[in-house]
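This section describes the prediction task in plain terms. A model, or a person checking by hand, is given the sequence of a single protein chain and must write out its three-dimensional structure as a string of tokens. No templates, partner chains or ligands are provided. The sample shown here is typical of the held-out split.
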Amino acid sequence: MNQENSTYYYGLKSKIQALSLAHQVCNVLGHGSHGYATNLLLETAAAETCLGLYQDPTPVGAGMGLCQHDAIAFKDIIQRTPRRFIYLIDKHFGCDITKLQHPHLANDPLLSFIFCRLHYRLRPEPIPSSLRGRAEYWKQFYNSMAGKGTVQHYLDNAHAYLYCLTPSDLSTPPCP
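The expected answer:
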């Protein structure tokens, strides 16, 4: 797959934009105790939507936006996010998340990364330093044990869309 000339979805224009947005979000909401939050956000987007290259074909979608947030998690994140983070998001990004509706995430990669980071901030466990550890962390705390994503899927997509291996280099195609 030639990712340089690919069509991006969810309002994303390029891989470089994704890298920049994830880094900006972590600069405001924290890089995690070991500094791996940016990796986690980008890898989550790679696992969920092939870093914006895969458009969910289901009519309503399994989730919303680049990081595929479901409506229940979206509402929970707003309710449980500490006021100081709501203030920081408004101050740095000009967005009051308490006034958003779930569909606002559909074509706004910045908002999707903000909600992804907030989702993970609700966990007390530190973000793992290894790729495999982050894959397991994603499976447990983001995709859920009931979700159809697998640790191997996360690893394959991280390699294919972030760490310079192409899908043909992998044992299984990362996206449908």
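For orientation: Residues 3-169 form one domain.
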